[in-house]
Amino acid sequence: MGKKRGAPPEVNAGSMADIAFLLLIFFLVTTTIGVDQGINRLLPRYEENPPVPPINERNILTVLVNKDNQLLVEEKLVDIKDLRQTAIDFLENNGKGTCTYCYGKKDPNSSDSPDDAVISLNNDGQTTYETYIAVQNELVAAYNFLRDRECKKRYGMSFTEMEYIFNDPASKATEGLIEDLEPKVKKIQEMFPMRLSEAEPKK
After folding, report:
1. From the centroid of its chain, how far is CA 76?
2. Residue 75 per-residue DSSP state
């Protein structure tokens, strides 16, 4: 007679908890979390009946994105690659001639000064998110171009770089750095204030 087979060997499950814990740590460390694209905007404080300041029509640049993702500036069809320069020309037009740091054409039918200029953006409810973001990027880039140009001329560095350092929590540990940058950042922001207005999308 042959030998009887014994009972099957038991699996040692004592280390399973350790393995599961190590796998959990591994996936926590290696997994990347996708971050949705967005637009950084500081919303104004709510007021029930906000005062509406009088704005001359020539100080408003109307930008519309229709349901076919076509871009219209002042009701004229414009390619998105030309939007940035169009916005720059409008913002520093200097119709009044009071802006000493503007290089605009002083067109009497365009904005009076950077402080008066408002860009009004409206989009259709069927506008794609990609087009909406692309238009936003070009308009913000127009402000950044003018701010960077003036900041380099005055302080030898771009406004984008200066603002990044100013807002970086790590730089706050550097004694005196924030106190030095704060008036410079505010000065450039005052010279080219970002007055970008968004209307409710059309349905």
Report:
1. 25
2. T
